[in-house]
Amino acid sequence: MPEPRETAVYTHGHHESVLRSHTWRTAANSAAYLLPSLKTHMKILDIGCGPGTITADLAELVPDGQVTGVDRAPEILEQARATAAGRGLTNVGFAVADVHALDYPDDTFCVVHAHQVLQHVGDPVRALREMKRVVRPGGIVAVRDADYEAMTWYPASDGLDAWLDLYRRVARANGGEPDAGRRLRSWALRAGFTDITASSGTWTFATPQERAWWSGLWADRTLASAYADRAVEGGHTDEAGLRGAAAAWREWGTREDAWFSVLHGEILCRKEA
After folding, report:
1. d(CA 213, CA 128)
2. What average pLDDT does the segment 46-52 reach?
3. Which of 2, 6, 76, 78 is exposed most, by the fewest CB atoms within 10 A?
4. For residue range 108-136, what is the model confidence (pLDDT) as tens digits?
5. Are 31 and 69 in contact (CB under 8 A)?
């Protein structure tokens, strides 16, 4: 039987507007639910590591252990290596990998971590089975994903409503599930986990600086990233529709009373010892 491989297309790509948000992510703001479970000697696999900011944080938290960051995109791993090198870390390495078919033996890692990954893959249950395979008995699979339908903001905006509808249609056409956060526990059960702790967490953007940053990166992403190309090429919208969505983001970002919250589902799944 051929090995399973990724069938979904990564919606965002690696445009600067995408990396602007990815490099903002830290273990504190994106993996707080996992941190109490870490011990200094642990061996960790960080799946979908992107530019490596969370990976580097995890490496600092396990100074007597080892962290491996993997991603499907070889080009982004160069940035991840530079991130780790700039922080003087020697207990971290990076490799190209597909979460559906990880090139590691059974029972290799103490922790397998994936942030904002399962929403973009073609078979999240198979991905979780692979994570379970490579984690040691008694080890933890930790997964966190946003839930786009649960995103909420103020004030109301027809333009942002249209943006959200468009994004969800494009993501699903690419083979992903943008409302992954609410599905994580269900997927974990289907993957064979029985010891699952489910939680949720949020990012909130409300200060003038946060609003400007969040609205600006989404306006730019809507016009210039791989997402924009796929939205038009897939027949989901046209250039005028993208410009309208970007303008709605920028207008929202100027509002003094604006507020935006991103809900994430989180699961800690312990493998049976």
Report:
1. 33
2. 96
3. 2
4. 999 999 999 999 999 999 999 999 999 99
5. no
